[in-house]
Write a structure and sequence with these properties.
Blueprint lengths: L2 H10 L26 E2 L2 E3 L16 H4 L1 H9 L4 E2 L3 E3 L7 H16 L40
Parallel strand pairs: 1-3, 2-4
Length: 150
Amino acid sequence: MPAIMKGWIDRVFAYGLAYGYRGEGNRYRYGDGGLRGKRALLSVVVGGPAEDYGTRGINGPLDQLLFPITHGMLFFAGMDVLPTHAIYGSGRITAADVAAERAAWRDRLTHLFEEAPIAFRRQNDGDYPDGHVLADHVAAGLSGLAAHIA
């Protein structure tokens, strides 16, 4: 993310709100922080084509590339994170593509509060009995980022 945005997050997502909520250290995080009940949506523009960001694309899946932001920052602070809105191929976008993307964005915003958030596993819903590691029976056979999405 741009440095100016990172600086803003560092100032706003402060101790007592985004982490250390209620003076409880790590007890209230990952879905239970001070921003619980708020919704977040990332909107990104990338230069490469969509296939570069697919499950086997050269850049890797966009949702995994953004996981440190969607899960590690927004969800950490308690927010319900909506699936990312992405515009691909910005380096070769035409006027017709711009019009189509503008319409898609307008539609997305129209239905913003009807959309289901990403099903990240909440820290305090029982999947992490010690508050740190998934229980053995949860997401059995999965590891990495995928294990933290229900």
